């Protein structure tokens, strides 16, 4: 636990990356696995995560993100794209995967399936999109902790045009929309933010025990 807290103190929202340093295939796969294991409502994971490495695409995305350098300097850019609608097809696929993974018959999951049909599937489309985006943020939080554990720098980012990103990545046609993004890689020694003390509320101010 002490090491984990040390890693969280080490991490910060990196502003400038060393373009010469790239994640190894092993480290990238470790981050992917950590993201795959992220918690989500019912375990539905109503999002996709795009790993953007193509330089030309990243240049276009940077223009839609207030010209923030992390977009092109980082080793990879991760796009958390939430479903714009969670429908019966998504649920059926989830139930099928659950049955296969747990070596069950799908009929054994009918009660679980009905519960999701009567809750999540009944939400208005706009509410479903908000719900899906919230699940993507849970995965983002897991990414930040995992990256710190592996001593990989990461920058969660909301300063971008979702509409612009969606257009460049053709997400609307796939029933997706950009919820949040994160850059991952290794900090530049020229990034002065790494030397600043971490500012957080005190435990007394943050926590209330009832």
Automatic annotation (TrEMBL):
UniProt xrefs under CDD domains: NfsB-like
Gene3D superfamilies associated with the record: NADH Oxidase
Coiled-coil ranges from the UniProt annotation: none
Residues of the Nitroreductase domain: 9-186
Keywords: Flavoprotein, FMN, NADP, Oxidoreductase
Pfam family, one: Nitroreductase
Highest taxon of the lineage: Bacteria
InterPro entries in the record: NfsB-like (IPR033878), Nitroreductase (IPR029479), Nitroreductase-like (IPR000415)
The protein's required cofactors: FMN
Similarity comment text for this entry: Belongs to the nitroreductase family.
PANTHER family assigned: NAD(P)H NITROREDUCTASE YDGI-RELATED (PTHR43673), NITROREDUCTASE (PTHR43673:SF2)
Protein name: Nitroreductase
Organism: Mesonia maritima
